[in-house]
Amino acid sequence: MALAKELITRLLAGAAVLWAAASLAFIVLQLLPSDPVQVIYGADSTVTPEMRDRIRADFGLDQPLWQQYAGFVSRTVTGDLGTSYQQRRTVVSIITSELGSTITLASLAVLLAFSMAVLATLATAGRDNWLRRVISSLELVSVSTPAFWIGLLLLTFFSFQWPIFPVVGDQGWKSLVLPVATLGIALFGTLSQVMRNEMDQALEQPFALTARTRGLSLWAVRWRHALRHALIPALTIAAETFGALLAGAIITEQVFGRPGLGRITLQAVRNQDIPVVLGVVLFSAFVFVTINIIVDLLYRVVDPRLRARA
Amino acid sequence: MTKTVARGLSLLLCGTMLAAVPSFAQDAQTGGTLRVVTYEPLCLDQNEGSSRNTQTALQDVYDRLVSEDLEGQFHPWIASEWSISDDGLTYAFTIRDGVLFHDGTALDAEAVRVNLQRWVDDKNAGGVPVESVAVDGNVVTVTLKSAYSPLLHDLSEPVLGFVSPASIEAYSKEDRCTGGPDITVGSGPFKVVARTSGQDLILERNDAYAWAPENAVHTGAAHLDRVELRFLTEDAVRVGAVESDQADIATGVPAIAVEDVEANANLTLLRTEQPGIPWSFWVNESKPALADVKVREALRIGVDYPSLIEAVFLGTATPAYSALTPGIPFGYDAALEGSWSFDPAAAAALLDEAGWVIGADGIREKDGERLSIVSLSAVNWNNQQRELFAQGIQAGLQQIGVEFTREVLDFATVDARFKANEYDLVDTSQSAAEPNLLFGAFHSEQTWDTNTNWGFVNDPALDAELEAALATTDRDERITHYVTAQQIIKDNAYLIPIANPQVLIAVNNRVQGVTFGTSGQVGSYYDVWLQQ
After folding, report:
1. What region, left, alpha or beta, does residue A180 occupy, with left being phi > 0 and alpha being psi -120 to 50 degrees?
2. Which position has the higher pLDDT, B109 or B381?
3. d(Cα B482, Cα B470) in Å, to the nearest integer?
4. Which pLDDT score is estimated for B22?
5. Which residues are CB-contacts of B122 (< 8 A; sequence separation ≥ 6)?
6. In this complex, is the C-beta atom of B228 within 8 Å of any C-beta atom belonging to chain A?
């Protein structure tokens, strides 16, 4: 019961966040001194006044602002995000057709980053040796190097210098290796730093000592007990990670010439394709809200203390 | 009397082209896949959305009515011949027999009419004053409201490539924009066989092709089996791909990579001057300071542009002296080259004469007003080199007591600033293979609400030349008018031309017969072949 109640509250709050995000984006984009007609036709086209009027009518831009907003909200509720100014396709079809590629890239990158972070944490937490110093330095490099640069470096060595992975043409998994590595490396640093920090603290707790006295090996303590503590903050930053993923995907897709949501976002922002920008904002807010709800539920799985309280 | 274009002339020109490009001397080999790394087209139905990238990517999928060569002469293509009435208002095109779209339907006079009518209905023919499009047998007649001499040029542009009317009816706008096999249907030497948005566009030879333009090197089907257009946005990645032999051609080679490409024994760097208006300052004459020709003149000679070009563009641009680039097919006035040179003392003297005296902070003043100049540009007109160059201009103008700032803003903001007349200079370049570009940029009625006369130039003598050039279809007469127009623009410093940008492509040596199109982009792959 309590769970259902909390879930409903959560969903309502989520809907409010979505509405706020949509409205804010709508307002901000209205504040831009943009003339959509010029955007639709591109910077170097000649637009006659008749064409201007016809386009304004086509896209409903001749209506008063409140009417445009009401239309925007009511269409959005029914799942219609409008039509791209530049591609003349519906925003929903643009997002859905690009989504698959980004999800593949992002989930593999998260998997890679997470595995690397768990390994790094298990190997180094609670210790102060050369390995820890090496891995900390690597994390620092990962956090402070732009994904763009990582991508170009990987390409220069593993595609241009030694032709192991292709940059041209879709050649299955081979085409995925470098983009996934680029995005994964960019995520790894933050994730690993947070997890080790948490594990360091957990290992100093009395329960760690108790477990050791029960005869558990150091590895078993780390793996069965301390890692759970480290996972909680990692889950918490998962939502932030999603933001980092979208930003990272923009760069990665740009460098590697991959289709995907990031590339579409960049293109839309650059070309002031307002319906697409709004669509991406809404979609991101939606994913953000969903992830937060899921993460809250996962806390209960990872941390039994929360289940007992509920 | 009507003028009919002779076929013999085009064959003659064809011969000179053969002589100019030695690789054609070998026998072309058939087969192979050409791998190109380039920019992505936004929308595959050019009537819905088009850019240079779209047009370059689709130039071999769609055929056009006439073909324009690099000298600006026109050759039969889908129109086997045409005539223009003396008043320049009626164009009658005879459509070639036996042309088929990739879907097997006929590209006949009716299909041409449907395409042209769609262009008129959807896009107001892009500002071309079309009155009507009519068909009678195998003749399509285009009637204009007023004479418009660049019509043949416009009809030769890839954007007016003919789409199968059957595919227009069968598919929605959305589908046509996304494109793909069976949807993106033209009649060109290559047909679309696969399309992955954001990734690539794969073309395959159209074996039935027997209607190449008369100025092409060969006839019949194309030499290549396949053309793979792979889309990579990053300059460095495109260059890396062609250097590591993952691609045969890379377009848009940045200046910084020129040395590397030239040093690579497997690659050839091809370059051409971008046709159009050079990278220039449009000077806003509605601002009191800039209304004075002495001040405009001082801005032109007060900066050492040639040295900056050398330092910044690394040999990929030349100093500009005219409102047109040397890359324009016809009408460029080479006599203007070197017609002014860097002379800071003379520039300072001109500003003194104009009443601008050095103030307390080293910047000139007049009636309490500082000589502070703001140049405006849009993000998509800008690049790293222009950014760097502007710093040089700023330093140069500082020396003669002029404060210069350059603002690079998003297009929407720039658009608003233009409308509010809040700028002194506009820096950009324009590209088109037609000297009529000058009409849009300098005719008194073509200000920002309709076109790009950002300077508010209002000169009856200049208007007269531009109008006369638009009214006559006689090429020599047009050249005379455009040459005079360039001189007027230069004499009055209506424009401060800076640099003629070059277009650079890196090509693997096994690829033969690569040329540039009239637009200054990589040309058709129809005559291209691979040495095996």
Report:
1. alpha
2. B109
3. 10
4. 44
5. B47, B48
6. yes
